[in-house]
Design goal:
Elements lengths: L2 E2 L2 E2 L2 H14 L3 H28 L12 H9 L6
Antiparallel strand pairs: 1-2
């Protein structure tokens, strides 16, 4: 129980997991598995969003980098993508 995925867990975290497990009536491993799955989904969505933003042209209205002041800054610093 001290390690999950070979990651040492703080005693207070272990205690919190055990308390939630008892109240929810599920195994700690199920709680951890569910939490990891949710966080991985969040991470995947985050990185896919970043990838999509990078692939959108700078003059596309949905790209936050399309703001004139941002384009000017990128141009001045030689960082503007093609």
């Amino acid at each position: 129980m001290e390690k999950i995925l070979s990651v040492p867990l703080d005693d207070s975290l272990v205690e919190r997991l055990e308390n939630i497990s008892v109240r929810a009536g599920v195994a700690v491993s199920e709680l951890v598995s569910d939490a990891i799955a949710r966080h991985l989904a969040d991470l995947e969505n985050y990185y896919l969003s970043i990838h999509e933003l990078r692939s959108v042209r700078l003059d596309h209205p949905q790209n936050p980098l399309a703001a004139p002041e941002v384009r000017e800054y990128l141009d001045l610093n030689g960082e503007r993508p093609a």
